[in-house]
Amino acid sequence: MAEGSNSNGYHIEDDSEMLVYKKSALSVTTFKIVYNHDDLGGSKKTLHFNPFMAHQVFGENESIFGYRSLSITIYYLHSSSRCYVDVQKSGKLKSNTLKVDDIMQSLDSWLPTGYTTELKQFEEAVKNEKHDVMFGEVLMDFKDKLECKLFPYKNVHSNYKISLCDVNDAEFQEYHKRFETFIVWFIDGASYIDLSDERWMLFYVYEEFMHPEKKEIYRTPIGYCSVYKFLAYPDKVRARISQFFIMPSHHRRGIGSKLYNVVVDKLRSLPEVIDITVEEPTNVFQKIRDFSDCQKVMQELKDNDIDLVATDIKKIFSHMKKFKIGKKQCQRLYDILRCYHASRMSIMEYSKYVRNIRKRISADIEKEYRGSKRVCNLNWTAIPVERLADRESLVESEFKDYMDSIEPSVKSMQQNLAGSR
């Protein structure tokens, strides 16, 4: 008989009876965005999605113990992000030895301040919702080519506006505290930021449309990006992108790419910013970043009639640094561009450059051995000490990890720039 434990650490036997009371938090939790009172029912048009992760809320196993037929629906008002939580269950385990998880206690610190579990109270908030609120100075707007999901077949197309918000605005601070509660479910290791620190910058994305029946403007926050400005002595700034979030309901519409471009273009325009980095980028974000940066570098080289292959790498890097790209990202972009270029020539050319990457990684590791150093950014911390003597194994491991990280970006270049010369 298999054994396990519930999220509170109590030892249980995973027999068929106990499994009935063990639920996946990712499966039973649903977010719904409320525009009008009808969205509180079972309307199919309501924007809804499930979380990507729940370990910070319900423990490493992302499970909830003690209930039958469990459903947790978390409603957010579309503009203000005021929140209502509805927990439904058909039965609860009765036991003198096993502890049932307290769902609301687990959720409490991860929900917007002032959330309610009372439907009537939330219905009143729905009635009082202001639909057209937006914060910040608009830096860019663009129209969605796809129809608005809320109004299929009615030829409603949303406009998206990206704004830079004033972190000193008390009303905005309260608003952001509510909206940022999404990120714990979608960004690994997410934490809330302190907007009393003026070194934060916040960029928001709003969806805007004219309601076809009510004839009112509706604006909804559907994502944001936070940036922290570190001091670079004596009077410069190193900008680090910290959080980058787009609602799952709005993925695959090019919104993330637009937001990234607006953020980095704004940062590059600030004379005090010397470079731009990213804090623990996800694979999806890194692909967006790579493709955007590669496009800018390719255009820069084209405008200056510079041959990527024939030109010394230091000169290529000097052009990259015009875009305030950090050294590590410069090398990464160079490898992606060279791999992309070689793949368009022949398999032999591609293989040849990939071997050059391996040689460089090997040389870097050899240099560290000679200097008796251990470099954390080569991911040595994941390799047992006894294997450090096996240089070939180390080189192969680092080479594979690096190629696995850049190949999706090379493929993205191939797919998005197919046919261009």
Rg of Cα set: 25 Å
Shape: globular
Which fold name corresponds to the CATH topology of the largest domain?
Aminopeptidase
> How much helix, percentage-wise, in residues?
25-40%
Structural class: alpha+beta
Whole-number mean pLDDT: 90
Percent in strands: 15-25%
The CATH architecture name of the largest domain reads 3-Layer(aba) Sandwich
Family: Belongs to the HAT1 family.
InterPro entries: Acyl_CoA_acyltransferase, GNAT_dom, Hat1_N, Hat1_N_sf, Hist_AcTrfase_B-typ_cat-su
Pfam families: Acetyltransf_1, Hat1_N
Domain N-acetyltransferase: 219-281
What does this protein look like?
InterPro entries: Acyl_CoA_acyltransferase, GNAT_dom, Hat1_N, Hat1_N_sf, Hist_AcTrfase_B-typ_cat-su. Its EC number is 2.3.1.48. It holds the Pfam family Hat1_N. Belongs to the HAT1 family. It catalyses: L-lysyl-[protein] + acetyl-CoA = N(6)-acetyl-L-lysyl-[protein] + CoA + H(+). The structure is a single chain. Helix content is 36%, strand content 23%. It is globular and about 70 Å long. It is built from twelve helices and 16 strands. It has three domains: 126 residues, Histone acetyl transferase 1 (HAT1), N-terminal domain (Histone Acetyltransferase, domain 1, Alpha-Beta Complex), CATH 3.90.360; 150 residues, Gcn5-related N-acetyltransferase (GNAT) (Aminopeptidase); 131 residues, no CATH class. A six-stranded mixed beta sheet has the order 11-12-13-14-15-16, covered by helices on one side. Strands 5-4-8-9 form a four-stranded mixed beta sheet. The chain is α+β, with helices and mostly antiparallel strands and 421 residues long. β14 and β15 form a beta hairpin.
